[in-house]
Amino acid sequence: MQSPLWTPIPGLRWAILRTTDGGASWSPQSSGTTNPLYAVSFVDTQVGTAVGRGGIILRTTNGGATWTQIFIPGGMSLRGVAFVDANTGTVVGDPHPDPTILRTTDGGATWRFQSGGLLGHALFGVSFVDVDTGWAVGGDILRTTNGGATWTRQPAPNQLTSVSFVNAQVGTAVGAGGIILRTTDGGATWTSQSSGTSVVLFGVSFVDANTGTAVGASGTILRTTDGGATWTSQSSGNFNRDLFGVSFADGNQGWAVGELGAILHTTTGGE
């Protein structure tokens, strides 16, 4: 089968690329920033949020055709973002001095700090399955069942960079050395999967228990349709820089973000 194509356009250094065919083809979008973008979260094919270095938050309500910039005071780098609907979202990032955990209930117009209780630790990824239940990963795995008001530790077999849960039990996490871990008991235990790569995987997104995409260093894109039992490499075209985050709104339409403010978009599931 022909390798899927995620295609940045030459000369568009700060492009955001979008696809609606699962990655078979990609179209450029303008992010309006040169800051690295570390994570992205779409709740449907129109409404999405991306975060990155310097406390930057980008918001789109038209599928990425245009993006509005929001900055968080303090300038800390924001590493992960998860929205469960158009209004309710959580962002995690570097210590400030506690790990940065921010929560919005008005679509990003205002944010409030939450405490993870881990002084000095950065958080790299976050995933929520509803407004109350979510996980954040970094040097530890944190879980909340009350919308982030309180967080509890779970076992962390490795330092992880991203996590994606599809329900309260089934989730996947990725990290350094191409590690991919799978849980079916809400994070109490994790099972290793073979990624076929040794590069750092920075982002992962599942739309259901079977269909997921992971992205990483040097434009790495991996796709599974069997819950991670097997992973297939996809092509990011001529974008050979690091991809830090990925989000799919459904089985076909997704976005990946990375260095130089790049955003890649597919409408073919990466194929």
Model description:
It is a single chain. The termini are close together. A hairpin with a 5-residue loop joins strand 8 and strand 9 (89-95). The chain has a four-stranded mixed sheet with strand order 2-26-25-24, with no helix packed on it. The chain has strands spanning 15-18, 20-22, 27-30, 37-42, 48-52, 56-60, 68-71, 78-83, 89-95, 99-104, 112-114, 123-128, 134-138, 141-144, 152-154, 160-165, 171-175, 180-183, 191-193, 201-206, 212-216, 221-224, 232-234, 243-248, 254-258, 263-269. The protein is built from no helices and 26 strands. Helices cover 0% and strands 46% of the residues. The chain has one domain: Methylamine Dehydrogenase, Chain H. The chain is mainly β.
List keywords for this structure.
four-stranded antiparallel β-sheet; four-stranded mixed β-sheet; 0% helix; 271 residues; Methylamine Dehydrogenase, Chain H; 46% strand
**Strand arrangement in the largest pleated sheet:** 2-26-25-24
Distance separating the two termini: 9 Å
Round the Cα radius of gyration to an integer and report it: 16 Å
- Give the C-level CATH assignment: Mainly Beta
In short:
This protein has 271 residues and is mainly β.
Topology of helices and strands:
Elements: E1 15-18, E2 20-22, E3 27-30, E4 37-42, E5 48-52, E6 56-60, E7 68-71, E8 78-83, E9 89-95, E10 99-104, E11 112-114, E12 123-128, E13 134-138, E14 141-144, E15 152-154, E16 160-165, E17 171-175, E18 180-183, E19 191-193, E20 201-206, E21 212-216, E22 221-224, E23 232-234, E24 243-248, E25 254-258, E26 263-269
Parallel strand pairs: 2-26
Antiparallel strand pairs: 1-3, 4-5, 5-6, 6-7, 8-9, 9-10, 10-11, 12-13, 13-14, 14-15, 16-17, 17-18, 18-19, 20-21, 21-22, 22-23, 24-25, 25-26
